[in-house]
Amino acid sequence: MTSSRLNRFAVFAVLGLVLAGCKTASTVRITSEKPAPEQAAARSEPIFYNGKTYKLDFAPRTGGVYDMAVSGMGPKQKKDAVAVAISSLGYFACPEGQKGRLQNDPAYADAKWRMQAKCG
Questions:
Q1: What CA–CA distance (Å, rounded) separates 80 from 82?
Q2: Which residues pair with 49 in a beta bridge?
Q3: Of the candidates 114, 101, 16, which has an alpha carbon nearest to the alpha carbon of residue 68?
Q4: Confidence of residue 97 (pLDDT cuts 50, 70, 90)
Q5: DSSP letters for 84-104
Q6: In contact, 92 and 108? CB cutoff 8 Å
Q7: Per-residue model confidence (pLDDT) at position 2
Q8: Which residues contact 103 (CB under 8 A, 6 or more apart)?
């Protein structure tokens, strides 16, 4: 190698080391705030309760509220329908440790118990 090639190689080597040592801006931000949980997508699930299988439909609305419908129960099974909906919402959509809470009085129509619930 000639001295001019050697000098050029040395310059590029030093330049490479300098550039490698440059620190880029970090995009990591540390905060004590927890991110808001994402709402689950609309879904239908078979729910096994008291020896029978029922169908639960739920879909997110604004404000963290879910439209819920329990099929397969009769008009006198309001308490059971609420238990299925609330416990299922807690399992499928609520952050760990939170339970579902009713937002309105359940109504029986078209062979379904319909209600709204929210995590909390």
A1: 5
A2: 52
A3: 114
A4: confident
A5: HHHHHHHHHTSPTT--EEESS
A6: no
A7: 66
A8: 65, 115, 116, 117, 118
Give the pLDDT confidence score for residue 120 in this predicted structure. 86
Task: Please report, for residues 11, 32, 36, the alpha-carbon distance to residue 17 in angstroms, rounded to integers and kept in the order given.
Answer: 10, 37, 43
**Cβ atoms 46, 54 nearer than 8 A:** yes
φ, ψ at 91 (rounded to 5°): -75, -45
**82: its two tokens:** 């609420």
- Would the pTM count as exceeding 0.70? no
What is the token pair recorded at 31?
């905060």
Q: Which of 1-10, 16-25, 55-64 has the highest mean pLDDT?
A: 55-64
Report the SS3 class of residue 93: coil
The CB density around residue 45, as the number of other CB atoms within 10 Å, is: 13
